[in-house]
Amino acid sequence: MQLDVAERTPPPELAPYIARYSGYSLRPLGSEPIRRREIPTGLVTVILTFEGKLTITDPGGSATFSSFVAGIDEHSVLTEYGELHGMQLDLPPLGAYRLFGLPMRELANTTIELDALDERPWSALITQLADAPGWEERFALLDETLLGWADEGPAPDPAVAWALRRLQHTGGLAPVGALAAEIGWSRRHFGARFHEQVGMGPKATASVLRFRHAVRLLGTEATISDVAAASGYADHSHLTREFRRLAGCTPSEYRLAGA
Predict the structure, then answer these.
(1) Tens digit of pLDDT for each residue in 9-52?
(2) Which numeric CATH code is attached to 158-257?
(3) In whole angstroms, what is the distance from residue 222 CA to residue 251 CA?
(4) Nearest 5°: phi and psi at 202?
């Protein structure tokens, strides 16, 4: 695979809305398409395609997309593509809530073409980005456009933002009931508000965050049992079950693949 990537950290004023973004040009070395397994990240992904298409296979089936948003999810997906040129934006859930201005539960565990998502001029933006002379000009155009759109969106509930930070800080180990109690909400009300703005309920979000912590530890020399213990799983078997559910493979298979 021939790969040309340009990355830039979003400016401070966009930091609450954009975790990272990049531009890329991908080309298979032969006639076979590139196939990848994408595991849950806890982020909302936006793909702005200048050239090419991607086929995404998830538990619901396969579909082909050009420019799309993939919501926060609890399962891995398979992607397949040939030559591809475009940009990728990774958004924290509450940043996506602010940017898109709609309940994040509508995006969770699904992929939607951007033109079908809202009334914003995504196609015009993508054309401008494709026609720009270089990556720096494209990033500058994204900065200006996305900051304006985010300023128009709803502000996340401070209590939901606090609870999500606690879950992230603890790697998903903060007890959901304790979070609701500290906020002063019933567990049911807390779950509903969290689900609306994050895309998944607090328990499912905690599960993905524990999984992500385990994925990071698998990049070290720690044993699988040590990874399980450090990530809040009961034992090696518990971690394996969660990996099969979320990544479609075992921890050992994931480590051997060097994913």
Answers:
(1) 889 999 889 999 999 998 887 788 889 989 999 999 999 999 99
(2) 1.10.10.60
(3) 12
(4) -60, -35
**Radius of gyration of the chain from its Cα atoms, rounded to whole angstroms:** 19
pTM: predicted TM-score of the whole model, two decimal places:
0.91
For residue 4, the model assigns a pLDDT of 86
Average pLDDT over residues 227-250: 94
Contact (CB, 8 A) for 32 and 200: no
pLDDT in tens, 77-105: 999 999 999 999 999 999 999 988 889 99
Domain borders along the chain are 2-152, 158-257
What's the CATH architecture for 2-152?
Answer: Sandwich (2.60)
